[in-house]
Amino acid sequence: MTVDLTGGTLVGVMAGDAGTVTLNVDDAAGVMADKDAGTGKTVTASGYLLEGADKDNYVLSQPTGLTVDVAKAQLTVEGVTTEDRVYNKLRDQDISGGTLSDGVVSGDVVVLSVDNAQGKFDDKNAGVNKPVTVSGFAITGSGAKNYQLVQPDYLTATVSKLDVTIGGVGITGTSREYNGLTSIDGLFGGEVVGKLDGDSISPDWQNAKGEFDSKNVGIRTVTITGYALQGSAAVNYNLVQQPGPLSYEITPKRLTVTGAVVADRVYDGTLDAKLLSIETLDGVVADDVGDVAVDVEASKAVFTRKDAGNALASITYALTGDEAENYYFAYPDSARAVIEKKELTVTGASVANRVY
Q1: Is the backbone of residue 107 left (phi > 0), alpha (psi -120 to 50) or beta?
Q2: Cα Rg, the chain, nearest whole Å
Q3: Which run of H or E residues covers position 204?
Q4: Tens digit of pLDDT for each residue in 253-312?
Q5: How far apart are CA 78 and CA 59, in angstroms?
Q6: What are the C-alpha distances in Å from 286 to residues 88, 291, 324?
Q7: 50 with 60: CB under 8 angstroms?
Q8: Cβ–Cβ contacts within 10 Å for residue 120, how many?
Q9: CB 80 within 8 A of CB 55
C-alpha cells in the first residue's frame, strides 16, 4: 500500500559540488507492508533520484526510518428509530433499525451488528424530547479492524406521564344540617390508583373542596375539585380526574318560635284553638330571610283540655316560602289562652199564683 512522501534534502555532498548534484523527488513514493490501520507503521521509501553534472560521483541511499499512522476510518449508523412511550420507572428505551453509512472502502467486508444495540435515557423521569444514548452497535467482517463505528447520537423520545386517579376519598360524617351553602368541608384521605410499586406519590388535598349539586335538603351529589399529587415521583404522573363524585345528605335546619299568641275564646266544648301571631322566627339562615315564614293561617293550634279557664294550647306550625322545605320544627310549641265560661239564659219559666 503506497503513501505519499514529501520533502527531502541531500546530506553529504562535497562543498565543491554544491549546485552540480541535486535531489529529484518527483517519483518519490513510500510503501507500507499492508493496508491496515495502525500507528508507527514502517514505510519503505523509493524513487528518490540524483541529478546534475557530478551525480555519477555519488550513490544515493533511499530514506529509512520512516513511519506513518493510519487512522481508522469512521463509520456512522443511520436510520435508527425509537418511539415515544409512557413512564414505566425504567431508563431503558427500545430502539430499532440501523444501517451503515457510506464510507466502506470498495472490497472491504464490513457488516453492522445490531444484536446488542440498546438505548438508554439519562434518567427515568417523564419529559419531552429526552435524548436517548445509544450503545451496542458493532461492526464485524474481515475489514472491520480498519474502521471505527460512531454510535448514533441523534435520537430523542418523549416519556409521557402515567395517568392515575384518586380513590377512597371520604367526607367526615354522613350528613349535615342545611346552612344555605353548596360548599362542604371535611374531605379526607384518598389513595393514588394506578401508580407503579415503589414510587413515592400520594394525594394532596390541601386545596381540595367539595361542592353540592344543590344547597337544598336531600341526598346530594358532591363534586370534588382541587386534589393534586405530591411526592418525589409526582412529576411522572398525570391526575386524569378528580375523586368522586360522592353522595351526602343535607338535613333540614331546626327552627324555633318566640312570642306565639293564641286567641282567647268562649267555651264551646271542643279543643279547637286559633293561632293569632308570633313574635319571632329563629334559626333562619341569613340569605333565606324573607323566603321562609310561619303560615299563621295554616298552622294548627289545639287546647290540651276543653274546660273554661286558663288553658294551654299545643301549636303545630306550618311554613311558607321558597325555602320552607329546608326547615322543620322539632316538636310542637305551646302558648296559653283563656277559655271563657259560656253565658247561659233561661226561657219558659212560670210563676204560680197564690193567696196573700
Answers
A1: left
A2: 54
A3: strand 202-204
A4: 999 999 999 999 999 999 999 999 999 999 999 999 999 999 999 999 999 999 999 999
A5: 56
A6: 54, 10, 14
A7: yes
A8: 16
A9: no
What is the identity of the amino acid at 294? V
Bond into 245 cis (ω within 30): yes
Q: Pick from 226, 231, 222, 192: which is nearest to 209 by CA? A: 226
pLDDT value, residue 189: 84
Q: Which residues pair with 92 in a beta bridge?
A: 120
Question: Rounded to whole angstroms, how far apart are CA atoms 100 and 79?
Answer: 9
- Sign of the alpha-carbon torsion through 274, 278, 282, 286: positive
| pTM higher than the cut 0.85 | no
The three-state secondary structure class of 296 is coil
| CA 152 to chain CA mean position, Å | 33
pLDDT in tens, 65-110: 999 999 999 999 999 999 999 999 999 999 999 999 999 999 999 9
pLDDT of residue 236: 98
If you write DSSP's letter for every residue of 255-294 in order, what string do you get? Answer: -EEES-EE--EE--SS-EE-EEE-SEEE---GGGTTS-EE
Rounded to whole angstroms, the Cα distance separating 159 from 118 reads 17
Q: Which residue has the cell 454510535?
A: 151
Dump pLDDT digits (tens) for 206-264: 899 999 999 999 999 999 999 999 999 999 999 999 998 999 999 999 999 999 999 99
Measure Cα distances from 127 to 81, 122, 196 in Å. Answer: 18, 11, 17
Alpha carbon distance 17, 20 (integer Å): 5
Q: Indicate if the pLDDT at residue 19 is higher than 90.
A: no
pLDDT tens across 170-193, in order? 999 999 999 999 999 888 888 999
